[in-house]
Design brief:
The complex is a heterotrimer. Chain B is mainly alpha-helical. In chain B, helix 1 runs parallel beside helix 11, helix 8 runs antiparallel to helix 11 and helix 10 runs antiparallel to helix 11. Chain B folds into two domains: 195 residues, no CATH class; 190 residues, no CATH class. Chain B has 17 helices and two strands. Classes of the chains: A mainly alpha, B mainly alpha, C mainly alpha.
């Protein structure tokens, strides 16, 4: 396959957003800034259509992987340096891409209504679309350098969006925090990319897979694997680097929705999916990932149950669900992980936009449970969407979340031991926090909730995209259902994944006739009745606990606060304090080296040498008192010495 | 984009008459020199444009022209004597630019700059003299021609000559810990002076390393890799760390220059194809981005007479174009992929990775990622609450070209 | 004791006295006198040695030294007068403008 045979849809995937951003920046922003969203929404439609077209193509077995051009070339010899710029359209990529395009486009529509009238409307839309474009680029990269490029671009776009209201001190701080944490993670990715280039002489995904399969020994593989996991932990908000995500709520709500559901945090999981053959080849690393994921999932689920701010609850929920994806990945269930990623995108976007609707209805930038209650009657559409998405998140059959979570729980169950218990506890925990939120916000206004009566239903532009997303969350399980399959018993999603991990993309001359299987389980486990029953029972238990604490005892959520317990929850059981200390340590180091070590000590020493020279000069000069007789003495003495030398 | 290295690839050569002791006015230019000369010419033009509305005597412009010609001479000279003369000739106009038109502490800074770099050059001069006289002793021919000189004539003292040269270049680059003249000089120099200083003058050191020290002493340079490369890697981290702690915008950019030049040296010392290309690319790119940053801070200073990080806030609201360009230049400076800073850095690092000491590249990575300090200016002055004395909408006539250039590639 | 020895002793003593005057005295006029004394000592010695070695060139040098001594007296006296009238006084201890 040559670049000229690349389908139109793949070109449009980039052409549409790039031209929309350029047109928006150079024309609309000057001419009619309030209409900047028009070309961008058009581009969203084109991107979504292209993504579906590519998805259909991959479903029919036509994957491809082509290089377009090479840049940064240097050197000659067997392994000349250079970075290829290419396109890889395969199962995992296209599965996430379709979700990102669809969910992202709906969020764009929502944002058009949500941001109307903001003085930065046009700036917002341009950066928002750049964010979207960066994620598309990341998903279709075919080598690590290109992936790193878009990875950073995603980080910068998120920085600009989180700090969108730049006059707010908290937004500025949150944006900086998110960016810095991501830079800490980027260190891992950059190092991994460099070591990969050094170890394999290529950075192209499929060529690396090929080398790995060949059975040669690569000593640096563990280092590469650990660096990749580190990078993924920062981007996908896993312990110990998760703390930036809950703070990144300072941006406008559509940003949070896009970031949590589609564009940003999934990048880390996707990176690990892409580099899974590398990671699977390192002894013990998959286990590490699984444990990080399981721990983060449980940890974040517990904290999410204590938060008051609606967006913050959802943020910790995202951390928890990313933990589940990591856990599935660590257990080798690549298919289950990507499946949960896709389903999670739907319900999490819907939930965020519901929270946005509530805040919008109260004319605030964010809402918390002190503000609202009993909205089920005044905001019917939002309530319906939230309910559907929440049921999906909690894993209630037959909603989408049930199927994906079941696949993960099944993997944990089969692994057994603490992992199975943790998986089940996460299931209960997620049901608890989301039902607590549902009960507190939508049922029975409590005396503590002051602003509830002001709420009114959102306008259709805000309501309809949310409903679509919620319906998507409900139906996402169908992806797993075999009834849609093409005359065989594999579901469409599994077909995609199998093609991604077992097949051979067209377009790379080096790979002709080299079919091989990659590690990782692409298919989803069959429905195991035991696991499904226990999982559902845990969800029901969580929901019941939420009902007990919010409905049968309405004031409880306000009563337990104020003590040491709340402080423990607020500091994420002390981890935030540790991180604060670390950051303080680093900035102390910077201050020390910048002001004391460099300025006072080292530069002081250097300037001191000048002073010393000046001082020595002064000392010598003081011997010259300006007396003629002194000089004559020197003269006589000098002459005497000379005479002595000559005469001897 | 492919820059080839080596003495044999000179594309333009001019031989002048031979003077006493074999000194001749011999010039040659290859792709690297041409790139740096183009950078000199461009930045000089930008500097003149940026100072257009300043109330300065004619001598100011004369200094800039003299500086540009001396710099061009450095990048062209093939005769070592000529090289040294041009090298020192750059100091004179810069001394006056800092000392006459700088800010409050200018005299001290100018003197420090002059003495510090001059002290470094003395070692370089001694090394050059030793090289030339050894060549005369062995062959009986006086020559200063870079292409004709041979380090083999030196015998055992080659090591000393090499380190003398390196010391002279290292002060100019500057490699930490020989960098302390830089923050002072940058901070006190007028905006245009800082642009020339950071944009071109720092490049002389790396150029010398690349054109003189490495071709003449390939084996010694290879042995010296752990030391020089180690110092370069140390510079990247140390410069970044120090920049993080600065409250003066210009000082911060100055320290970030130390870090950037560390990457150049790292790439050049690795002597792999991608390392050399990346290092030289980074030379040019650093000139553009840092030049743009200094100019932008200069515009601020011109209007507010302040440079502190905490003196500004909310500029994005009052000066959106300024904020845009400032953000753009900072992002390019931190090496965001897609902007110019990234390519050179990435290639330099992957070159260093292939060199025998990949640990240096690891340290360099820390440098890349810890270079968030330059983020602070973007986030601090441009966002946050508008401060009372913030200048109202500086119109920056010359920043667009400078910044636009910084998005090269 | 030969004549040469006498001349050496005499001129040496004369030179030493002149040097001592120049070095120890702070009176400018006295210092000038000391200088003249030293020159005279050298001259006497030269004359004696010219006879000893039968060398007329030494006599030419003597003539030159006499001319220099005369010029020196002129310039020196003029300077002393100038310092005495317009400066701090004809005392070497007061003339410390060369102080470092």
């Amino acid at each position: 396959m040559t670049p000229s045979q690349v389908p139109l849809a793949a070109w449009l995937l980039f052409a549409a957003p790039v031209s929309a951003i350029l047109f928006g920046f150079f024309v609309m922003r000057r001419w009619k800034p309030e209409l900047t969203h028009v070309p961008i929404l058009l581009s969203c439609a084109v991107v979504t259509a292209s993504a579906f077209a590519l998805c259909a193509q991959v479903l029919s077995g036509h994957m491809f992987d082509v290089n377009f051009f090479r840049w940064a070339e240097a050197g000659t010899g067997p392994f000349p340096f250079g970075v290829d710029f290419g396109l890889r359209v395969d199962g995992p990529g296209v599965a996430v891409l379709t979700m990102v395009a669809f969910v992202g486009s709906l969020i764009h529509v929502y944002a058009a209504a949500y941001m109307k009238g903001d003085p930065g409307f046009s700036r917002f839309f341009l950066v928002f679309h750049l964010f979207f474009l960066a994620m598309i680029g990341l998903l279709t990269s075919n080598n690590f350098v290109q992936l790193y490029l878009f990875w950073e671009l995603v980080g910068v776009a998120s920085y600009l969006l989180v700090g969108f209201w730049y006059h707010k001190e908290s937004a500025r701080a949150a944006a900086l925090k998110a960016f810095m944490t991501n830079r800490v993670g980027d260190f891992g990715l950059l190092l991994a990319v460099l070591v990969i280039g050094y170890q394999f002489n290529v950075t192209h995904f499929h060529l690396i897979y090929l080398k790995l399969i060949s059975g040669a020994k690569f000593e640096l593989l563990p280092l590469i694997g650990v660096c990749l996991v580190w990078a993924a932990c920062a981007k996908s908000a896993q312990f110990p680097l998760y703390f930036w995500l809950p703070d990144a709520m300072e941006g406008p709500t559509p940003t949070s929705a896009l970031m949590h559901a589609a564009t940003m945090v999934t990048a880390g999981v996707f990176l690990l999916v892409r580099s899974w053959p590398l990671i699977a080849a390192v002894e013990g690393l998959p286990h590490l990932i699984a444990w990080i994921g399981a721990f983060t999932a449980l940890f974040a689920a517990v904290i999410a149950g204590s938060k008051k701010d609606l967006k913050r609850i959802l943020a910790y929920s995202t951390v928890s669900h990313l933990g589940l994806m990591m856990m599935a990945l660590g257990l080798g269930q690549v298919g289950a992980s990507v499946f949960h990623l896709v389903v999670h995108g739907f319900f999490k976007a819907a939930l965020f936009l519901c929270a946005g609707n509530i805040a919008h209805a109260l004319h605030q930038s964010t809402a918390n449970v002190d503000d609202v209650g009993g909205l089920s009657s005044s905001m019917r559409l939002t309530y319906l969407s939230f309910l559907l998405a929440a049921l999906s998140l909690a894993g209630v059959p037959p909603f989408g979340g049930f199927w994906s979570k079941d696949a993960i729980l099944d993997a944990a169950w089969h692994h057994g031991g603490a992992m199975a218990v943790m998986g089940m506890l996460v299931a209960a925990g997620s049901a608890f926090y989301i039902f607590r939120m549902l009960f507190l916000v939508f049922y029975g206004a409590r005396p503590e909730q002051k602003r509830a009566p002001h709420a009114h239903e959102a306008e259709p532009m805000l309501g309809v995209p949310v409903l679509f997303l919620a319906l998507g969350a409900v139906c996402a399980g169908l992806l797993k259902a075999p009834l849609l399959a093409f005359a065989e018993l594999k579901s469409p999603f599994e077909r995609l994944m199998v093609f991604g991990l077992r097949g051979l993309p067209a377009g790379l001359p080096e790979l002709q006739g080299m079919a091989f299987d990659l590690p990782g389980q692409p298919t989803l486990p069959h429905l195991n009745m035991t696991v499904a029953l226990i999982g559902t029972a845990m969800a029901a238990l969580g929901a019941f606990a939420a009902w007990r604490l919010t409905m049968s005892d309405p004031g409880f959520d306000w009563r337990w606060r104020g003590g040491r317990l709340e402080r423990a929850f607020e500091s994420d059981f002390g981890w935030k304090i540790v991180v604060g200390r670390l950051v303080a340590g680093v900035s102390w180091c910077a201050r020390f080296s910048g002001r004391v070590l460099d300025k006072a000590w080292w530069d002081g020493l250097i300037e001191g040498s000048a002073d010393a020279a000046r001082g020595a000069g002064g000392l010598l000069a003081s011997t010259a008192r300006g007396r003629v007789n002194d000089y004559l003495w020197w003269l006589v003495a000098g002459s005497a010495i000379l005479m002595g030398r000559v005469l001897r | 984009m492919l820059i080839q290295h080596g003495a044999g690839l000179a594309t333009v050569v001019e031989e002048g008459p031979r003077l006493a002791f074999g000194v001749s006015y011999a010039l040659s230019a290859d792709a690297l020199s041409l790139g740096l000369i183009a950078l000199t010419a461009f930045l000089n033009l930008v500097c003149v444009a940026a100072s257009w509305e300043l109330d300065v005597p004619p001598a100011y412009w004369a200094c800039f022209l003299a500086l540009a010609s001396a710099l061009t001479g450095v990048f062209l000279a093939r005769d070592l004597f000529l090289f040294y003369v041009f090298w020192e000739a750059t100091l004179i106009p810069m001394f006056f630019i800092i000392g006459l038109w700088g800010s409050s502490n200018r005299l001290h800074a100018a003197l420090k700059f002059f003495l510090f770099t001059f002290a470094g050059s003395v070692f370089m001069l001694l090394a050059i003299l030793a090289l030339v006289s050894a060549h005369h002793r062995v062959t009986g021919v006086w020559t200063w021609d870079l292409a004709a000189l041979d380090a083999k004539t030196l015998g055992a003292s080659a090591k000393w000559v090499f380190w003398g040269l390196v010391l002279g270049f290292a002060v100019k680059i500057p490699v930490a810990p020989l960098h302390t003249w830089l923050p002072d000089a940058h901070t006190e120099a007028p905006a245009a002076g800082s642009v020339m200083l950071a944009g071109v003058m720092l490049k002389m050191g790396v150029y010398g390393l690349l054109k003189i020290a490495l071709p003449l002493f390939p084996d010694l340079a290879w042995d010296a890799l752990p030391v020089i490369g180690g110092l370069a890697a140390f510079s990247t981290v140390y410069g970044a760390l120090c920049a993080m702690a600065q409250t003066d915008l210009k000082r911060m950019i100055a320290y970030s220059s130390v870090a950037h030049l560390g990457f150049c040296v790292l790439g050049v010392m690795s002597r792999t194809a991608q390392g050399l290309t990346g290092g030289t690319l980074q030379l040019v790119n650093h000139g553009l981005t840092t030049g743009a940053l200094f100019l932008l801070v200069g515009f601020l200073y011109e209007r507010a007479h302040k440079r502190g990080l905490s003196d500004f806030g909310g500029l994005a609201g009052r000066a959106p174009y300024f904020a845009f360009f400032f953000g753009f230049a900072t992002l390019a400076s931190i090496g965001l992929p897609g902007l110019n800073g990234f390519v050179g850095e990435f290639m330099a690092l992957s070159g260093a990775m292939s060199a025998p000491y990949p640990i240096l590249a690891v340290v360099g990575c820390v440098g890349v990622t810890s270079r968030r300090p330059t983020r602070c200016p973007r986030s601090r002055p441009c966002s946050g609450r508008p401060r009372a004395r913030a200048p109202s909408a500086p119109r920056s006539p010359t920043s667009p070209p400078a910044s636009a250039a910084s998005c090269g590639l | 004791m030969s004549l040469t020895a006498v001349v050496w002793l005499a001129t040496g003593a004369l030179f030493a006295i002149g040097l001592a005057v120049v070095v120890f005295r702070r009176q400018l006029l006295a210092m000038l006198l000391g200088l003249e004394l030293m020159l005279a000592a050298v001259n006497v010695s030269l004359v004696h040695h010219a006879g000893l070695f039968d060398d007329a060139e030494a006599l030419a040098v003597v003539a030159l030294v006499i001319a220099v001594a005369a010029a020196e007296a002129v310039v020196g006296l003029a300077l002393i007068l100038r310092v005495r009238r317009g400066g701090p006084g004809a005392d070497a201890g007061l003339l410390t403008e060369l102080r470092g």
